[in-house]
Design a protein that fits this description.
Layout: E1 5-7, E2 13-15, E3 19-22, H1 27-37, E4 42-44, H2 45-53, H3 61-78, E5 86-89, E6 92-95, H4 103-115, H5 120-131, H6 145-150, H7 152-172, H8 176-189, H9 194-206, H10 210-228, H11 234-245, H12 258-266, E7 278-279, E8 332-334
Parallel strand pairs: 3-8, 4-7
Antiparallel strand pairs: 1-2, 2-3, 4-6, 5-6
């Protein structure tokens, strides 16, 4: 029997490796997302109430939270997931996930493993495997504004750091043409990150596109001046000077290149742990908007297959892809109406779309 696992890096879903049941936006879905983000940690009841309701929770919220937990457990039972996957502990709840049951845990483990790789080729391969786990914007089908505001940017930052590292390695190895598409896409999607612009300019220059590199430098300088009133950082200024002088940049991963990359990597924060000792953010108090809890909608998965589901990832997968409803090739993703919707519920989701595998 295939082992069920959760996917958080994109559409929040439950999968057996071949088919994925996508949860519709709802209060139980918000609850599940909050627990998975802090996998392994005790997540306080107060934090969960704010994540689930977004506004000042109603007087009956604690009882409603217990109802959301029961609804999730019923869904888990439908797919053979143990009832104690969500643990009730003093002060809150906890979900213990590992690299086989949650893609976020696997992503962090791969990034950590890449950092200890003995050579650049291995590190690049492992980073691509980690980045391939991202199937689109994180929390794409989670409606909690609090989670999107406080948690999604932190998770996205982990991905961008891994992508920056990968592009650094590829440039240092002289694979400028191969990485050009990656850095071009990253620089356009994230203009606020100067490092991606530097990588794009370096790749353009090293592939004989000096004029385009200088145009890119001018655009970055103008944007920084107009939006922030600042000049580009020292690395970009040095790169511009080298291009203007027509200096040849070292593309080989020799002694003067990779150690410099390692030095930069050593200054970045360590990968965030699977959770916090206790997730409990300061309380917000906007206008009270009581709402009824609603069960997340999931699609019935076919009977679990007898083969193992955890297939090796393709190292050639494009790490910069950001597809809202894509799945790994060969997988089927479905979504059906809510299991127990309330017709009068103000937050009942519209008819859910059907996502076809590509």
């Amino acid at each position: 029997m295939s082992r069920m696992r959760f996917q958080l890096l994109g559409l929040l879903s439950i999968t057996d490796g071949e088919h994925a049941a996508v949860l519709q936006p709802s209060k139980p879905t918000n609850l599940l997302a909050a627990l998975l983000i802090h996998s392994g940690a005790v997540v306080s009841t107060d934090y969960l109430l704010r994540a689930v309701w977004d506004t000042e929770p109603p007087a009956t919220a604690r009882a409603a939270l217990q109802s959301c937990v029961l609804r999730l457990r019923r869904i888990f039972a439908k797919y053979g997931i143990a009832n104690d996957t969500i643990e009730a502990v003093p002060g809150g709840y906890r979900m213990r996930m590992d690299h086989e049951t949650l893609d976020l845990v696997r992503f962090r483990g791969l990034v950590q493993s890449a950092g200890s790789a003995r050579d650049a080729e291995t590190e690049s391969y492992v980073l691509r495997e980690a980045l391939a786990l991202w199937q689109g914007p994180v929390l794409a089908n989670v409606s909690s504004h609090m989670l999107h505001r406080d948690e999604a940017p932190r998770l996205s930052e982990e991905r961008l750091r891994a992508l920056e590292r990968l592009c650094d390695i590829e440039l240092a190895r002289g694979r400028c043409r191969e990485v050009l598409t990656d850095v071009w896409d990253a620089a356009r999607r994230h203009p606020e990150r100067e490092r991606f612009a530097e990588q794009l300019i370096e790749a353009l220059y090293r592939t004989g596109r000096q004029t385009e590199a200088l145009v890119e430098i001018r655009a970055v300088k103008e944007r920084l001046k107009e939006e922030f009133g600042i000049d580009p950082g020292a690395p970009l200024q040095r790169l511009e000077l080298a291009i203007l002088r027509g200096e040849e940049l070292d593309t080989a991963p020799g002694p003067g290149v990779l150690p410099a990359i390692e030095a930069r990597a050593s200054t970045r924060p360590a990968a965030l742990p699977g959770g916090v000792a206790r997730a409990d953010l300061p309380s917000r108090a906007p206008a009270e908007t009581p709402a009824q809890e609603q069960a997340p909608a999931v699609a019935a998965l076919p009977p679990a297959a007898s083969t193992a589901h955890d297939k090796a990832h393709d190292p050639a997968h494009d790490p910069t892809s950001a597809r809202t409803a894509d799945t790994t090739p060969g997988h089927t993703v479905t979504s059906v109406p809510s299991l127990a919707p309330s017709p009068a519920s103000p937050d009942a989701p519209p008819n859910s779309p059907r996502f076809n595998a590509r």
